[in-house]
């Protein structure tokens, strides 16, 4: 139906705008947050001058992202003398595209009723409602791991096709690191699946709108605080960020698997990394922080402990849920950047040993304890 097409075009446009916006803003956040942590001024050189005046609009360095984008678009695209042209060209897109597709199954709001939001269109929509999620799939969490695991193919293609020993070594590191930490992410999420009994992300979020012990929000981090910590560490390793940035390791491998890339091809690799920060934050928010809801919030307002109810209009609920989701994602993204500028880089043997000898046994122990606890409680 045309109504469905209109709604989902709006959802897709919103999702792409949010991810592109986060990818752009987080480049500035990283620079400014690093400057604050290092006690320096930070990004403040790029500016716009008001015509016919000497007034320069610096705006805390916000124009640096624009300058970087223009620089990458206008730079000459150098290519190595010997390389596999097809794999070399397709690799940045294989890294970039799946990162966007993961967001298709992430619910960024509750139930949308266009007829209530726009009364003039009530007859056209005939009371139909839509979950604020691009793809409402029962197996949403499986889709996340399926698409999330595809990005490593692009990294390995880039390293192999460049005919550069540093690039190839970075690609090999990226592959082994992905295998190690993807397993840990899956084990940590299994604990939530055991508790909530579903892999539907929207269902998981809705179950987190309740309470535990009558006053605690039923968020995943309350049920699984240990798994939340392991998930965040494994997700940062998946994104190849410090202290797990061994596939790139500028001081060792120049730039790792994309050493031979320049101009906008290199920009796609870097932009995908920042978008993946937002994706990790969105998944963490969805799985462990109640998603788009505040504590005790549902699609009609707030149901507070003790039976008190605060009703809200449908428009107020929709806006609140969208803003809450974006705020949580931004906070978790900033936390990842905080970690990046706090910890030193591991050696490569330490990265793998940390995964297999420390995090893997802990993830297994967490899953075992969760399963036994749930069996005892339900039994």
Descriptive notes:
The mean pLDDT is 83. A hairpin with a 6-residue loop joins strand 1 and strand 2 (56-57). Helix 8 (165-196) packs antiparallel against helix 11 and helix 11 (225-238) packs antiparallel against helix 13 (263-288). The termini are far apart. The strands form four sheets. A three-stranded antiparallel β-sheet has the order 7-8-9, with no helix packed on it. It has helices at 2-37, 63-74, 85-102, 114-117, 122-125, 140-148, 151-161, 165-196, 201-207, 220-223, 225-238, 250-253, 263-288, 314-340, 348-378; strands at residues 48-49, 56-57, 111-112, 130-131, 211-212, 216-217, 297-298, 301-303, 309-311. It contains 15 helices and nine strands. With 379 residues, it is mainly α. The protein has one domain (78-378).
Strand order of the largest sheet: 7-8-9
Give the proportion of residues in helices.
Answer: 55-70%
Query: N-to-C terminal Cα separation, in Å?
Result: 47 Å
Largest sheet: 3 strands, antiparallel
- Low-confidence runs (pLDDT<50, min 5 residues)? none
Please tell me the overall pLDDT.
Answer: 83
Write down the Rg.
22 Å
Number of domains: 1
Count helical runs: 15
**So what's the overall shape?**
globular
């Amino acid at each position: 139906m045309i109504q469905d097409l209109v709604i989902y075009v709006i959802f897709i446009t919103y999702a792409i705008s949010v991810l592109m916006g986060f990818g752009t803003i987080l480049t500035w956040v990283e620079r400014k947050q690093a400057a604050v942590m290092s006690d320096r001024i930070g990004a403040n050189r790029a500016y716009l001058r008001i015509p016919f005046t000497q007034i320069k609009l610096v705006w805390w360095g916000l124009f640096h992202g624009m300058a970087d984008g223009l620089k990458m678009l206008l730079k000459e695209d150098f290519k190595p003398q010997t390389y596999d042209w097809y794999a070399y060209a397709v690799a940045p897109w294989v890294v970039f595209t799946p990162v966007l597709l993961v967001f298709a199954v992430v619910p960024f709001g509750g139930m949308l009723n266009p007829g209530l939001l726009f009364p003039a269109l009530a007859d056209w929509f005939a009371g139909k409602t839509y979950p604020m999620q691009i793809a409402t799939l029962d197996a949403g969490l499986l889709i996340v791991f399926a698409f999330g695991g595809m990005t490593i193919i692009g990294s390995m293609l880039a390293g192999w096709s460049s005919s550069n020993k540093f690039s190839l070594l970075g690609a090999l590191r990226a592959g082994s690191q992905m295998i190690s930490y993807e397993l840990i992410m899956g084990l940590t999420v299994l604990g939530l699946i055991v508790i909530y009994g579903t892999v539907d992300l929207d269902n998981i979020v809705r179950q987190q709108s309740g309470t535990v012990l009558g006053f605690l929000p039923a968020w995943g981090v309350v049920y699984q605080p240990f798994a939340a910590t392991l998930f965040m560490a494994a997700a940062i390793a998946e994104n190849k960020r410090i202290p797990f940035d061994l596939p790139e390791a500028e001081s060792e491998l120049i730039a790792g698997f994309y050493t031979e890339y320049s101009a906008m091809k290199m920009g796609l690799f870097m932009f995908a990394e920042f978008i993946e920060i937002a994706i990790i934050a969105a998944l963490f928010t969805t799985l462990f922080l109640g998603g788009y809801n505040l504590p005790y919030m549902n699609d009609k307002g707030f149901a507070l402990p003790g039976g008190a109810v605060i009703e809200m209009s449908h428009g107020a609920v929709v806006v609140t849920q969208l803003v809450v989701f974006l705020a949580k994602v931004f906070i978790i993204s900033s936390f990842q950047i905080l970690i990046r500028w706090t910890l030193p880089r591991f050696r490569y043997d330490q990265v793998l040993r940390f995964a297999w000898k420390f995090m893997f046994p802990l993830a297994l122990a967490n899953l075992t304890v969760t399963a036994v606890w749930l069996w005892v409680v339900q039994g």
